[in-house]
Design goal:
With about 200 residues, the protein is an alpha+beta fold. It has a single domain, classed as RNA polymerase II/Efflux pump adaptor protein, barrel-sandwich hybrid domain (OB fold (Dihydrolipoamide Acetyltransferase, E2P), Beta Barrel), CATH 2.40.50. It has 4 helices and 10 strands, in the order H-E-E-E-E-E-H-H-E-E-E-E-E-H. It has helices at about 1-15, 85-110, 115-140, 190, and strands spanning about 40-45, 50-55, 60-65, 70, 75-80, 145, 150-155, 165, 170-175, 180-185. The strands form 3 sheets. It has a 4-stranded antiparallel sheet with strand order 2-9-7-4, with no helix packed on it. It has a 4-stranded antiparallel sheet with strand order 6-5-3-8, with no helix packed on it. Helix 2 runs antiparallel to helix 3 (about 115-140). The longest helix is centred in the middle third of the chain and has 29 residues, at about 85-110. The chain is elongated. The two termini are about 85 Å apart.
C-alpha cells in the first residue's frame, strides 16, 4: 500500500499545468493604394556646366575664386592686366570729346554760311570714327574680366595669377548649383510605371 502512495505522489508532481495563451487582435483596414519605397543607384549632374575663358589674350592680374567657392551670376571671377587697354580708352575718350566739340562748332559755322558742306561732312566723319574707337576700347576693357554666367560652384581652376594666356584658354570651370539632372539606373519592370511630367522624390 505504501508503494502505491509513493507512485501516486510522484505522478502528481510530474504533471505540468499549461499557462494561458495571450492573443493579440489586429484590425485589418482596406486602402485604395499604397506606397512602395525602392532604392536605386544613380548620379546627379549639373544642368549647366561651363569652362570660362577670356575673349582676349593678356596677363592674368587676379583670380578672385577657388575650387568649391559659390558664385553669383554677374560676379567677377578673374581679371587681366588692363593698363594698356585703359590707356587706349582714355586716349579714345579725349579724341571723341574733341571731335564732338568740333562737330558742334562746324554746325554753327555752316548755319552762318562760313564753311562748306564738305567741311561739315568731314567733321561728322571724324566724329563717327572717334565714337567707334571709343566703343571699341570700351568693349576691350569689358573683355578683361570674366563674369559668372550663372549661379554656381567653382569645379576646377586651371591657371594662376601672372600667367600670360591666349584668347579662349579655359581659366575656371563652373557648375550650376540650382538645377541638376538625376540619372537613375532603373530596372525594366519599373520603367513602364514612370510617367512624364510626374514628380518623384529621390
Amino acid at each position: 500500500m505504501n508503494i502505491f502512495k509513493k507512485i501516486f505522489v510522484i505522478s502528481c508532481l510530474s504533471i505540468r499545468i499549461p499557462k494561458p495563451l495571450s492573443l493579440e487582435i489586429l484590425e485589418v483596414s482596406m486602402f485604395d493604394s499604397y506606397k512602395v519605397t525602392k532604392q536605386l543607384p544613380g548620379k546627379l549632374y549639373a544642368v549647366q556646366q561651363s569652362k570660362v575663358a577670356f575673349q582676349i589674350g593678356g596677363k592674368i592680374q587676379t583670380i578672385s575664386v577657388d575650387i568649391g567657392d559659390k558664385v553669383e551670376k554677374g560676379s567677377v571671377l578673374a581679371e587681366l592686366d588692363n593698363r594698356e587697354i585703359l590707356a587706349n580708352l582714355n586716349q579714345a575718350d579725349a579724341k571723341y570729346k574733341l571731335a564732338e566739340q568740333l562737330l558742334e562748332r562746324f554746325k554753327d559755322l555752316k548755319a552762318q554760311g562760313h564753311i562748306s558742306i564738305q567741311e561739315l561732312d568731314k567733321a561728322e566723319s571724324d566724329f563717327a570714327v572717334a565714337k567707334s574707337q571709343q566703343d571699341f576700347y570700351q568693349v576691350k576693357l569689358e573683355q578683361t574680366k570674366i563674369l559668372a554666367p550663372f549661379n554656381g560652384l567653382i569645379q576646377s581652376r586651371y591657371l594662376d595669377e601672372g600667367t600670360v594666356i591666349n584668347p579662349g584658354l579655359p581659366i575656371l570651370e563652373i557648375l550650376d548649383s540650382e538645377k541638376v539632372e538625376a540619372h537613375i539606373a532603373m530596372p525594366l519592370n519599373l520603367v513602364n510605371k514612370v510617367s512624364l511630367k510626374q514628380t518623384y522624390a529621390f
